[in-house]
Amino acid sequence: MKNNDHTAKRKPWVNWMIFLVTVVIVFIIGLFASSIIERRSESQLYFQMVSEIPEWEPRNEVWGQNFPREYESYLQTSDTSFKSKHFGSKHIDYLAKYPEMVVMWAGYSFSSDYNQGRGHYWAVEDNRKTLRTTSRFMQPSTCWTCKSTDVPRVMNEIGVAEFYKTPWIDMGAQIVNHIGCQDCHDPKTMNLRITRPGLVEAFERQGRNVNDATHQEMRSLVCAQCHVEYYFKGEGKYLTFPWDKGFSADEMEKYYDEYEFADWTHALSRTPMLKAQHPDYELHMTGVHADRGVACADCHMPYQRDGGIKFTSHFMVSPLQNISGSCQVCHRESEEKLRENVYERQDKVAELRHITEANLARTHIEAKIAWDAGASEEEMSPVLKLIRHAQWRWDWVAAANAMGFHSPVEALRVLGTSIQKSQEARVLLAEILTRHNVEIPIDMPDISTKEKAQEFINLPMEELRNYKRKFYEDIVPQWIKESKERESKMHAKLK
Ligand code: HEC
Ligand code: HEC
Ligand code: HEC
Ligand code: HEC
Question: Which has the closest alpha carbon to 429: 383, 387, 389, 386?
């Protein structure tokens, strides 16, 4: 009461003064705060451009002059020293490791050559080098699409459809810079952007606009330009994502069946086959990390510090190479524990995977014997459908990177259905073989090594290797010369 009496006795102008002084102080504090926030966002958004980057600039070095930290970390993708239990950047010859795959891909380019992927730095070189791009397989330029920053440039020059349908070999002199800055960034604002039409068009067909994606979604969608399932549609080999019904293995399978699409006809079982690419994004989206809003970049592009400056590491690699930067931002467990968590899930997926491989190789061979014994189209048709689906589902998991870690439960479910379907095929085959007087079990050929398996499917490996040798002597140097001349004419000059 005493205090109230005191206030009441104060002269009215004193109260007004207190009020005004408070307003002024609040105003000044407000000014400070807004200036601090502005500075901070300036330091994130305003870049000191050393040299302006023209639209469609493919050369990472030119971008790198402006952003040396990001550029230098990106160059580390050339490092091929890291190896984990199932992955890493070291060379692994998958066909030597799993010779059954040679039989599973009989009649298709993958039976000649298939290695574990490495960093973005190697993308162009590895595409040139693989036996899958020898003339025998007559690839279209669609195969270059996810390998180089020159792709958006050339698409802009000649048009998207024209790009895809140009033979692979005729585009070589244009495609020289490996994947880089221009694939994911707008050169004016450095905002993330989508440059590959396949993703934009897949969104459009679903009635969505990729430009409406949130910032966090973009941190995965830039990867989903390439780390996804796609196919070469029609005569024009138009790169298309089979996402119209959804992107689980089952929904994409339905899509392909309706469209009666086949990547190739199997040389032994005569099945119209599907080859999965690498549905990393799709598998990831079914997992708990995606469910909690974790993006590819959270694990594969952790923040890094250089003195006082925080930036995004562009060394996109196995996160097991830097568990503290990648996983421990969110998880409190030790590095050993987290690595063990990854390996435990991968080992389980690998176990089912190898059961499927043995099963599928056997099924293709049994189907061939059934055809040879005079089985009819009608008898074989349900068998071929089961083989098609079983191998697609196996591949959906096997071709995706990380051996199922991105979504272990879904990976195991899909592999489980694959095993079920290949077993059903073998039950039907046993009936057919018996009906045609073939004694079962059949004698399996020796496919215990890559070489033996390739000989069994009659693949002329020597011829393919000789072709590549000549290609490196005659054609590649020409491509490099031509591209050097073109680039020396480009406007942004290197210092
Ligand atoms: C929760 C963390 C996490 C997220 C999110 C994540 N990954 Fe991974 N990724 C991993 C782990 C762990 C591996 C396995 C690495 C190993 O075995 O060495 C891996 C492996 C890979 C590999 C193979 C690496 C190699 O060494 O060959 C690729 C490619 C890949 N992820 C791409 C992606 C893409 C694309 C996305 C988003 C769609 C994504 N990842 C999301 C953790 C993650
Ligand atoms: C323009 C296509 C493209 C984009 C965009 C792209 N990748 Fe890749 N990525 C590839 C190709 C192609 C390879 C395999 C290169 C090789 O083996 O020569 C690869 C390989 C990788 C590897 C394996 C590295 C290793 O050392 O084994 C990782 C990890 C990876 N990418 C993560 C990502 C992440 C994360 C994103 C998004 C932030 C992304 N990629 C965006 C095409 C792309
Ligand atoms: C595969 C996609 C991809 C490629 C290739 C790529 N970046 Fe990035 N970049 C990202 C992502 C994702 C971020 C994080 C953006 C965010 O969260 O705002 C990023 C962030 C940045 C930033 C913002 C500052 C920072 O460090 O977070 C700069 C600058 C940058 N990148 C420069 C480059 C340069 C230079 C290159 C080429 C040498 C490059 N980027 C290649 C995906 C990519
Ligand atoms: C941006 C945060 C974030 C990052 C980075 C992250 N995680 Fe997670 N992780 C989560 C969340 C959230 C969950 C879901 C569990 C929960 O909500 O408590 C989870 C779940 C898991 C699980 C159990 C689910 C499953 O798939 O079986 C494992 C194992 C795991 N994380 C390992 C890793 C590893 C290894 C890395 C690094 C390669 C990593 N995480 C990176 C946030 C993250």
Answer: 383
